[in-house]
Design brief:
Blueprint: H1 5-10, H2 37-45, H3 59-71, E1 76-80, H4 83-92, E2 100-104, H5 109-118, E3 125-129, H6 134-140, E4 145-151, H7 163-172, E5 176-180, H8 185-188, E6 198-202, E7 216-220, H9 222-236, H10 242-252, H11 255-274, E8 279-283, H12 293-299, E9 306-311, H13 316-324, E10 330-331, E11 341-344, H14 345-348, E12 359-363, H15 369-385
Parallel strand pairs: 2-3, 2-4, 4-5, 5-6, 10-11
Antiparallel strand pairs: 1-7, 6-7, 8-9, 9-12, 11-12
C-alpha cells in the first residue's frame, strides 16, 4: 500500500512508542536479553527477524528502514554505515568470480573504485556506458552480465537513463538492476515503480539533511534485502549506529519541505545563470535546454539542489578565481545538506581536458536564493576581470 508522504515521515513505525513518547527513543544498546532458553535460541536461529545484537537489528534503526522502504515503494530496506557500504553490498550480493557488470560512467567515484580495484581482484569485469543511449546499454551486456548499475541523474553531468526500458530488458536476461537514487530522493523519483530491482541512497545527503551524519541504505523486495542481509550485511558488518539512525529520522521529518525548497531555489539560480556571459553550459535535468527534459519529466516529479555549470573559460586559474571569491557557497565535498556548496571538477578529478576543466558542481542549499545569486554574480565578475 502506498501511503501519504507526511504519514510516512511523521507517523509510520511509531504507533507504540515507550511511555507515550512523541519522538522514538535512541536504543543505544549493543545487545538484547531474553526471558528464556527457547526465545534465546529462536533469536540466534533467525537474526534477520529478531533483536539479538545491534550488528543485525536495532529498534531505532528499524523505524528509519520502515519509513525509507515505504517512501521508495519497496518491501524492505536495510540501513548501512555509509552510502558506499550500501552500494558495495548491493552489487557484491549478486556477483561471483568471472561475472560482469555494466555501469554508467559518470557515477559516484567510490562505486567506480569498487569496480576498478576491489572486484577486479576476484575476476569480475565491468563495462562503462554513457547511459543516455539505451542501445549502448544493451550492447554492453555480455552472457556473464549479472548487474546493471545505474545512477540517474549522474554525478557531474546529470545525464538520465531510461529506467523502464532498461529494467524490462534486464529482466529478460535475469540481470539485477541497481540504481543510486540519492539525487532525486524518493520524494521526486521512485525507480522501483519503473521495474528497477534495488535502490541505494547515501543517507548522508537529503535524508539526513544537516551534514552531520554518514549512512547509506538499500531498498527492494523482501527476498533481495534478505539475501543482502544474510550474505553481505552481517558478514561485512557495516552497521549503522543507533544515534546516527536517529539523526536520519530527525532529518526525514522535513524531507518533503526541504526538497521543494531546494528545487524552487535551484530553478531561480539556474534562470539567473542561463543569461550570464561567463556560463557556457548548464547541466540539470529540468533545465529548459536539456535534451532529456521529456524523460526527466516522465521519471521524476521534480529535482534536487545539485547541478553543474561549465564556465566560459579553458583556464584553471579562472576556475580558482571564481571558486575562491565565493562567500556564501562553501568549498566542500558531498551535498544534500542545508548549506550551499561548490566542487570544481579540476579539484576532484585528474583527467582534465578542454571539455571538463571548467565544470563546477553546485549545490543550492536552503538559503535565500537571492543571496546565492549575489554571491555567484560577484565571483563571476571577478573571474571575468582577470
Amino acid at each position: 500500500m502506498k501511503r501519504n508522504v507526511t504519514e510516512i515521515l511523521h507517523h509510520l513505525g511509531e504507533e507504540n512508542m515507550p511511555f507515550g513518547s512523541v519522538t522514538p527513543p535512541i536504543f543505544q544498546t549493543s545487545i538484547f536479553q531474553f526471558d528464556s532458553f527457547d526465545k534465546f535460541k529462536e533469536a540466534l536461529s533467525n537474526e534477520e527477524e529478531n533483536y539479538l545484537y545491534t550488528r543485525g537489528n536495532n529498534p531505532t534503526v528499524n523505524i528509519v528502514e520502515e519509513k525509507i522502504a515505504a517512501l521508495e515503494h519497496g518491501q524492505r530496506a536495510k540501513l548501512f554505515a555509509s552510502g558506499i557500504a550500501a552500494i558495495s553490498s548491493g552489487i557484491m550480493a549478486f556477483l561471483k568470480s568471472n561475472d560482469h557488470v555494466v555501469c554508467v560512467e559518470d557515477s559516484y567515484s567510490w562505486t567506480k573504485t569498487l569496480l576498478e580495484k576491489y572486484l577486479k581482484r576476484f575476476g569480475i569485469s565491468h563495462t562503462y556506458v554513457d547511459g543516455s543511449d539505451i542501445e549502448e546499454v544493451y550492447s554492453a551486456v555480455r552472457p556473464n552480465t549479472k548487474v546493471i548499475y545505474l545512477e540517474s541523474p549522474t554525478t557531474f553531468t546529470f545525464k538520465i537513463q531510461d529506467l523502464e526500458n532498461i529494467s524490462a530488458f534486464a529482466k529478460k536476461y535475469g540481470i539485477k538492476t541497481i540504481i543510486d537514487n540519492t539525487w532525486a530522493t524518493p520524494y521526486f523519483q521512485n525507480p522501483l515503480d519503473f521495474g528497477i530491482d534495488l535502490v541505494v541512497h547515501s543517507s548522508s545527503k537529503y535524508f539526513g539533511g544537516h551534514s552531520d551524519v554518514v549512512a547509506g541504505v538499500i531498498v527492494g523486495s523482501k527476498k533481495d534485502i534478505s539475501h543482502i542481509f544474510n550474505t553481505e550485511f552481517l558478514n561485512i558488518g557495516a552497521v549503522p549506529d543507533p544515534f546516527a539512525s536517529w539523526l536520519i529520522l530527525r532529518g526525514l521529518r522535513t524531507l518533503h519541505i526541504r526538497m521543494e525548497r531546494h528545487f524552487q531555489s535551484t530553478m531561480k539560480v539556474i534562470d539567473y545563470l542561463y543569461h550570464h556571459p561567463a556560463v557556457e553550459k548548464i547541466n540539470y535535468p529540468f533545465y529548459k535546454d536539456n535534451p532529456q527534459l521529456a524523460l526527466a519529466k516522465k521519471q521524476m516529479r521534480g529535482g534536487s539542489g545539485l547541478f553543474s555549470i561549465k564556465l566560459a573559460t579553458k583556464r584553471v586559474e579562472d576556475v580558482k578565481t571564481f571558486t575562491d571569491n565565493l562567500r556564501i557557497f562553501k568549498r566542500a565535498v558531498s551535498w544534500g545538506g542545508y548549506e550551499s556548496l561548490v566542487v570544481p571538477y579540476a579539484v576532484s578529478h585528474k583527467n582534465l581536458s578542454e571539455d571538463n576543466i571548467s565544470i563546477v558542481r553546485i549545490h543550492v542549499g536552503l538559503e535565500d536564493p537571492e543571496i546565492l545569486i549575489d554571491d555567484l554574480e560577484r565571483s563571476l565578475k571577478r573571474m571575468m576581470k582577470k
